[in-house]
Design brief:
Layout (H helix, E strand, L loop, with lengths): L1 H19 L2 H23 L8
Length: 53
């Protein structure tokens, strides 16, 4: 739950930086946000499901 909030906060900060005209910081922020998002997706995509049949 906290990780998803962190990802959305990173994207929000990146959008605010882009609106403020801080182009380079916005690019770096987007890159960091994208890496964190891909890591979190990879974590969930490779996680095993504990289903008892």
């Amino acid at each position: 739950m906290i990780m998803m909030a962190l990802i959305f906060c990173l994207y929000l900060i990146t959008m605010v930086l882009a609106i403020k005209g801080k182009r380079n910081l916005a690019f770096y922020g987007f890159g960091v946000s994208l890496v964190v998002s891909l890591f979190w997706f990879s974590h969930h995509a490779t996680d095993t499901l504990s289903i008892l049949l």
